[in-house]
Amino acid sequence: MGVRVLRTPVRAPTANAYCERLLGSLRRECLDFLIPFGEDHLRWILRIWQLHYNRGRPHARLGPGLPEAPPGLPASLIGDHHLPGDMRVVARPILGGLHHEYGLEKLAA
């Protein structure tokens, strides 16, 4: 599978903390609720979860914003707590409804 063991750098003993936090989030938010039916299915789950983790999931350290802004959405709207009159909030299910991503969509005229 191409797995390698990486040793913790001697001068950076907290290097494992980042990996442990990511793997803990992956396990708690995803793999505790889904059963992969093989390596290809696991890779698909991880690919979808990675996109959700990096683009659609709010990160506490960044405040109310997202790490990567959705395409086509002005940066001034991100983190703001008002809804423009010509837009509505839509929910998109991720991994069969395990998670949801919320975004803005223009109202039909």
Quick overview:
The chain is built from 2 helices and 2 strands. It is α+β, with helices and mostly antiparallel strands.
Set out the fold topology:
Blueprint: H1 15-31, H2 39-56, E1 87-94, E2 99-106
Antiparallel strand pairs: 1-2
Helix content: 25-40%
Alpha plus pi helix count = 2
Number of separate structural domains = 1
Strand adjacency order, main sheet: 1-2
Residue share in β-strands: 5-15%
Low-confidence stretches: none
Order of helices and strands: HHEE
The rounded distance between the terminal residues' Cα atoms is 52 Å
Largest sheet: 2 strands, antiparallel
Mean pLDDT: 78
Q: Find the count of extended strands (DSSP E, 2+ residues).
A: 2
Structural class: alpha+beta
Gyration radius (Cα, Å) is 18 Å
The best one-word shape is elongated
Explain this structure to me?
The protein is of the alpha+beta class and about 110 residues long. It has one domain (about 15-105). It has two helices and two strands, in the order ααββ. It has helices at about 15-30, 40-55; strands at about 85-95, 100-105. Strands 1-2 form a two-stranded antiparallel ribbon. The longest helix is centred in the middle third of the chain and has 18 residues, at about 40-55. The radius of gyration is 18 Å and the shape is elongated. The N and C termini lie far apart (about 50 Å).
